[in-house]
Inverse folding.
């Protein structure tokens, strides 16, 4: 196989208030269709077994930790496809630039937040969520738990009871600092981008995702899925189908 057709390593990066287990259903759907696919999940510091202090966490620390995990999993000469969800959008530009030159084949942004220059994640949130999160981050450096009613409205709208249980099972404490820090890395124009846009997303509605695409520098390959924010839990088979279509 030529480098362009050799299957890549898919590196899944979770979003805010979630840990890497949020990808389990989508990964199972991927492996059902393509059992030999190379997949890894990346953990931001302070989640599951990845060490880190949520109270002092920075974007750069997250980028460094994610890059180290990918470097350990990657085989010699293997390309990487980055798949990030939600808050991972602030890490992806720095991660793409930090990884070995030429090793990132494509990046897939799933319902991501990419603030415009000079802004942070909180600035991009829809009005109700912006007001709530701004109040929370002023009170504490660590968001121990997002109220369930908030999780259900913004992450789990239109879900079944079992899907809501799955969302609750994969949520965790979050660093307030990541939500108010201004990202500085810009996207490398040489790396192809696909954007997966859940059309019923309340945490990152379509209009805010379009703004994030513009902040990234413009995205021409946009795929829509009829789902809410946690599309990897509520529509894992559809997400897997789109991912496989994108990476060929």
């Amino acid at each position: 196989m030529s480098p362009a057709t050799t299957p890549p390593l898919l590196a899944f990066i979770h979003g805010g208030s979630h840990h890497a287990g949020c990808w389990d259903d989508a990964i199972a759907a991927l492996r059902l269709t393509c059992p030999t696919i190379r997949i890894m999940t990346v953990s931001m510091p302070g989640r599951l077994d990845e060490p880190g202090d949520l109270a002092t966490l920075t974007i750069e620390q997250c980028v460094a930790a994610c890059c180290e995990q990918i470097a350990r999993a990657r085989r010699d000469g293997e390309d990487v496809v980055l798949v990030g969800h939600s808050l991972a959008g602030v890490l992806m530009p720095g991660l793409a630039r930090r990884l070995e030159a030429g090793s990132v084949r494509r990046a897939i942004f799933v319902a991501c937040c990419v603030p415009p220059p000079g802004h942070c994640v909180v600035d991009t949130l829809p009005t109700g969520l912006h007001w709530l999160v701004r109040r929370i981050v002023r009170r504490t450096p660590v968001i121990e738990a997002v109220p369930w009613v908030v999780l259900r409205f913004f992450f789990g709208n239109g879900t079944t009871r079992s899907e809501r249980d799955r969302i609750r099972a994969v949520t965790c404490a979050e660093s307030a600092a990541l939500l108010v820090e201004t990202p500085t890395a810009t996207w490398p124009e040489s790396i192809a981008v696909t954007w997966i846009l859940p059309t019923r997303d309340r945490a990152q509605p379509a209009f805010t995702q379009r703004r994030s695409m513009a902040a990234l520098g413009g995205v021409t390959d946009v795929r829509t899925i009829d789902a809410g924010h946690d599309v990897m839990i509520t529509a894992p088979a559809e997400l897997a189908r789109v991912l496989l279509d994108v990476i060929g």
Remarks:
- The beta strands are 9-13, 38-42, 80-85, 104-110, 142-143, 174-175, 192-198, 221-225.
- The longest strand covers residues 104-110.
- Residues 9-247 form a domain with the Rossmann fold fold (CATH 3.40.50.1820).
